[in-house]
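Protocol step 4 of 6: structure prediction from sequence.
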Amino acid sequence: MKQLVHTLLCMLISILFSANAIAEQKIEDDNYIVHYSAVNTTMLTPEVAKASGITRSRKRGMLNIAVQKKQTSGKIEGVLAQLNGSVSNLIGQQRTLEFNVITEGSAIYYLAEFFIDDGERLSFSINVQPTPQYRGLKVSFEQTFFIDK
């Protein structure tokens, strides 16, 4: 069962990143790449949500962030980082995002949950600090969410 959940979780992450490859939901500089995506939690299977500690609900969204370091060899590897950020709606209501780190083998990613309303446009602002000495990377984007009926 644990292997099945691991496989499902890896498939979810692959789907999220491959679906976003067209939109290129990432930022990068000379040293790091930060991939990000936000989805309604109903896109997760119950098994994947449970394994990730995510609450599945039509009124909840999930932010997924992965931080990768560019190696001199040309390879890219996941790294730990400090993340802090917030999500706000059009009338200025703001909530702090609480990130949970998930490690699966060499993959490292961060998940944060937030509430959504149907047709709501949310603004995200996240600071990513790969190391204490490194200047931070800023992820900012807006996205409209729709509730499955």
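Step 5 (inspection) to follow. The beta strands are 26-28, 32-40, 60-70, 76-78, 82-88, 94-97, 100-104, 107-115, 120-129, 137-145.
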